[in-house]
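[Discussion] Sanity-checking designs against the backbone

I'm trying to build intuition for which residues belong where. Below is a structure token string of 195 positions. I'd appreciate it if someone posts a full sequence so I can compare it with mine line by line.
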């Protein structure tokens, strides 16, 4: 491969996953003591912080800056009515930020929703919460007229997300890889301006 010939090394693989139908969604079972409540604008900072906290241990980290937050909130595809937020009293336990992109759907001729972020905070992991939130998301997308759903995942996700997603009928649709080239700051770049 050309990248490798130029000294780059593959460091990570990501999967785009597809659930080709939303007709056969099992009933979600939320863990005891948790409830799903609608997202309101006043919750935005707490939702953003919970999502960033859940992804801190992931490859590449997260951009939890104010600028990134504003960009997300102001994105015309942002629709709080599509968000599934699980609460444990006043605390956010987990969430799925769902999205429908009408432009993409029109362009490609499908009715697909995106599970843009699936996040469970550490104290609530390994209790079935992510599965319940995913299933609830799929039901909601189906109610909104979608016929399929997609998401992206790091193939080496430390929380076994790939297994979770395949257990909810997502299939690997395609993959992409991240390459990096070792760089010696003492030697400087191999190119010079004007090359």
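Best answer:
Here's mine. Compare freely.
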């Amino acid at each position: 491969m050309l990248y490798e010939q130029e000294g780059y090394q593959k460091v990570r693989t990501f999967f785009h996953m597809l659930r080709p139908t939303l007709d056969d969604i099992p009933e979600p079972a939320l863990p005891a003591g948790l409830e799903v409540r609608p997202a309101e604008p006043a919750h935005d900072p707490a939702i953003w912080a919970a999502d960033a906290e859940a992804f801190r241990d992931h490859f590449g980290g997260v951009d939890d800056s104010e600028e990134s937050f504003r960009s997300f909130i102001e994105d015309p595809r942002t629709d709080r009515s599509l968000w599934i937020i699980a609460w444990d009293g006043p605390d956010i336990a987990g969430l799925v930020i769902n999205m429908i992109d009408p432009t993409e759907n029109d362009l490609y001729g499908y009715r697909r929703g995106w599970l843009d972020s699936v996040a469970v905070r550490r104290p609530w992991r390994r209790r079935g919460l992510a599965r319940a939130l995913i299933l609830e998301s799929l039901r909601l997308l189906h109610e909104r007229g979608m016929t399929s759903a997609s998401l992206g995942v790091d193939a080496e996700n430390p929380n076994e997300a790939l297994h979770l997603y395949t257990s909810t009928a997502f299939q690997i649709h395609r993959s992409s890889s991240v390459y990096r080239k070792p760089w010696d700051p003492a030697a400087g770049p191999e190119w010079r301006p004007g090359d």
